[in-house]
Design a protein that fits this description.
By secondary structure, the protein is an all-alpha fold. The protein has helices at about 15-25, 30-55, 65-70, 75-85, 90-95, 95-110, 115-120, 120-145.
Length: about 150
């Protein structure tokens, strides 16, 4: 085991498992197979989170909301997956539409959406994210009754 101390090997693990992992990670970055793998992983995670939530409700997970009572822009993100995993898509959308849109964008990235995102200038991406976060925060403030409309 020579080499530079503290260096990390950049190669995939050897053997059959290593090849399967390597192929799966490569496929997850490209085309329809990548989208299918991402959607499958999110669906399994959503069903798992819903199952855990049914058996043990951990309560408020957002530290900002737990300490101040004010929701953050990403509040409802876990609820999105709990509701989607429980088969209630409308309630998932109402929990936080920005998180749900982000999940769809993440799933569709291998189909070319990711290239379009990175084609925007950093300033444009920053503005888009900022507007989405402000919109999400306003949604959460109305949702939790902090802001009356």
């Amino acid at each position: 085991m020579g080499g530079v101390p503290g260096a990390v090997a950049a190669e995939a693990p050897e053997g059959v498992a290593g090849r399967v992992v390597s192929r799966t990670l490569t496929a997850a970055r490209h085309g329809p197979m990548g989208t299918m793998l991402r959607v499958t992983a999110m669906a399994v995670a959503a069903v798992g989170v819903a199952w855990i939530h049914r058996s043990h409700d951990p309560g408020v997970l957002c530290p900002l909301r737990a300490f101040t009572g004010v929701p953050c822009p990403l509040c409802g993100g876990t609820t999105v997956f709990v509701e989607a995993g429980s088969g209630r898509p409308v309630r998932a959308v109402l929990a936080n539409p920005v998180v749900l849109a982000g999940a769809f964008a993440f799933a569709a990235a291998p189909l070319g959406l990711g290239r379009r995102w990175w084609a925007f200038s950093p300033r444009t991406r920053g503005w888009m994210l900022g507007i989405a976060l402000v919109g999400s925060e306003l949604w959460q403030l109305v949702r939790f009754g902090v802001l009356r409309v």
